[in-house]
Design a protein that fits this description.
This protein is mostly helical. It is built from ten helices and two strands. One of its GO terms (molecular function) is serine-type endopeptidase activity.
């Protein structure tokens, strides 16, 4: 006697990747069990995991810190590349729209009180392609070392405040009684000198020889007194601000590095603002 087996009419759903619903995948994540397409698969110690589970696992890991308390990151120096990109973009915009754009961004002590944004925007302007190339080359060489050592936010703060410090030094050493009050200043040199001071202190703190950096700083600073058109005042201001901030970053106690760095950054900004206000009030 034979029995008839009923035909199965139900079919199971085809598994698709939740991140890419149009892609069929029979490979499942070993952690969450969801389908993962080839684009979302990540090799694990055992089997395959999806990108969401990998990202979640990485987020749970304690962040690795540099010796100076910055968050350790791998890959290219993002902040340095961003600054270089902005400087190049501004240079191209000035080349396209002419000097009218540059006239609204340069810094001179005589206009800084009514248009304070110029204290910072001038650091992203350059007087020519050679000026731009030299500053960006120095920024790349030094920034590639300082940014990974300090971490992104400390490095960005040091760069911007050094640039601001260069403009403030130009203001403090200018007089409304002569042409220095209305002499325009452009360039990232003040910020770069802040990085020069920072890399010197970073190398010293790590016990490495920093003689070459010291010689480089001295040579570049000396050029401001023998080559016309170079603002040694901006170099001096950037170097002083960079040295003070870098010292607070690299010599802060490791367990309080974030607190000390934050207070030093805020304090330096406050000092620069107060000095600027006092100079304009007494001018």
């Amino acid at each position: 006697m034979s029995a008839q087996i009923p035909e199965q009419t139900g079919t199971s759903a085809v598994p698709v990747c939740p991140r890419h619903p149009g892609v069929v995948s029979y490979v499942r994540c070993q952690r969450c069990g969801r389908p993962a397409c080839a684009q979302c698969q990540r090799p694990a110690a055992v089997g395959i995991q999806c990108v969401d589970c990998v990202r979640e696992a990485q987020a749970r890991l304690p962040s690795t810190r540099t010796v100076f308390g910055g968050r350790a990151r791998h890959g290219r120096p993002v902040v340095t590349l961003t600054i270089i990109g902005i400087c190049v973009a501004v240079y191209l915009l000035v080349a396209v729209f002419g000097g009218s754009l540059q006239q609204h961004l340069v810094f001179a002590p005589g206009v800084g009180d009514v248009q304070p944004y110029r204290f910072l925007t001038s650091a992203f302007l350059h007087g020519g392609v050679l000026h731009l190339a030299l500053n960006m080359y120095a920024l790349w060489i030094v920034g590639s070392v300082v940014e990974p050592a300090l971490g992104r936010w400390r490095y960005a703060a040091l760069y911007l405040l050094s640039a601001l410090g260069g403009s403030v030094a130009v203001l403090l050493l200018a007089s409304p009684d002569n042409s220095s009050w209305f002499t325009a200043v452009v360039g990232a040199s003040g910020a770069v000198f802040g990085l020069f001071a920072a890399i010197f202190l970073v190398l010293r703190r790590l016990g490495r020889d920093a003689t070459q950096i010291l010689v480089l700083i001295a040579l570049n600073f000396g050029l401001g007194f023998v080559v016309a058109g170079i603002s040694w005042q901006a170099h001096l201001g950037g170097a002083v601000v960079g040295a003070v901030l870098a010292a607070s970053y690299v010599y802060a106690p490791r367990e309080r590095s974030t607190l000390v760095s934050g207070l030093a950054t805020a304090g330096m900004f406050a000092v620069l603002v107060v000095l600027t206000m006092l100079k304009y009030a007494l001018a």
